[in-house]
Amino acid sequence: MMNLDKSKKYWNPYFGGVMLGLVLLAAIYTAGRGLGASGAVKSVLVTGMEAVAPSHVENTPFYKEYFASHSGNPMKSWLVFEMLGLVVGGFVSGAMAGRLKFKVEHSPKITSRKRIIFAVLGGIFFGLGSQLGRGCTSGAALSGMAVLSLGGFITMIFIFGTAFALAYFVRKLWI
Amino acid sequence: MGPLTVYEIISANTNLVLAFVIGIGFGFVLENSGFSSSRKLAGMFYGYDTTVLKVFFTAAITAMVGTLIFALLGWLDLSVIYINPTYLWSAILGGAVMGAGFILGGFCPGTAFCALSIGKLDALAFIGGLFIGVFLFTEAYPVFEGIYKAEFMGAPFVYDALGMSRGVFAAILIIAAFGMFWLGEWSERKFPRDEY
């Protein structure tokens, strides 16, 4: 049943949620682990740093610990392949719905430039937080909740709780 | 018996091919649900669009119930699936820092890549920020290491921490989710926006 919301052409959110849950279940059933995203960013960064600054990587505490617990090529990881697929799947969906377009999406109250600055800033916070929290909304919160991990629930509550708590102060970015 | 890769029913390379296929499903579902739009995602925090709440909790419940059913049917060995470890302070602090990033940037990592796939340039900027943020963590790791490893609790289940059985907790979570869906629907009627 394709429950389409005609005005925006997006799926009904409950249908989308069931589909996302089934994708997550497929990951757990085949790979024994949930979905993720931020881990792939880390793999790319580690690979890039190894290529451009090998001596720095050898002498930095983080990388020493990383390579002690990870063997093999960081790019040959489940999360990297999953994220490559994600980009393909998003593109196919966007193409089918006629949503492919280069644009900076922002509230009419702010400029594209301001939107870009805050997007970078938000990305920095999210990147740092995802390392501190051992995973992002996908890997820690969603997948953690699905396997009923205490940490997953705590991280989920603090991601959404903090965003709600700060929403008023940055409302001009969005409404 | 699953997980298929742990029980060596599929090879490590097949597992990577499946990761790619699962990723396609992940991206397809996120995009079709509207998660490639930062203003739709941010709507969650102003009440005008609670798609995030509905998709996120429906997905969590679906996967949780599916996992429990698979285990009951003997298809899935729950003892070997990955359970996120809990380091109390980093779970709290990391979550809070990510929440700040969410409301400032309008994306999370997965949705940003999904939005980039259809051409959103604000998502590209967010992803640039992600790399800077991860880089900052790796370079300043000694500064964060203390809090990163503090209060390690193993990999506890939420229902054990709350002193209830798995089934009871799952039932409560499902009821709570329906309560939140009702709140979400109410909120969208109360704070409507035409175009965003």
TrEMBL record, chain A:
Subcellular location per the Swiss-Prot or TrEMBL entry: Cell inner membrane
Mode of membrane association: Multi-pass membrane protein
GO CC entries: plasma membrane
Alphabetical UniProt keywords: Cell inner membrane, Cell membrane, Membrane, Transmembrane, Transmembrane helix, Transport
InterPro entries per UniProt: Sulf_transp_TsuA/YedE (IPR007272)
Family: Belongs to the TsuA/YedE (TC 9.B.102) family.
Protein known as: Uncharacterized protein
Organism from which the protein derives: Prolixibacter denitrificans
Automatic annotation (TrEMBL), chain B:
Domain of life: Bacteria
The keyword Transmembrane is annotated on this UniProt entry: yes
Sorted UniProt keywords: Membrane, Transmembrane, Transmembrane helix
One family name in Pfam for this protein: Sulf_transp
Transmembrane segments: 6-30, 51-75, 87-116, 123-144, 164-183
Record-linked InterPro entries: Sulf_transp_TsuA/YedE
Protein name as catalogued: Uncharacterized protein
Organism for this UniProt entry: Prolixibacter denitrificans
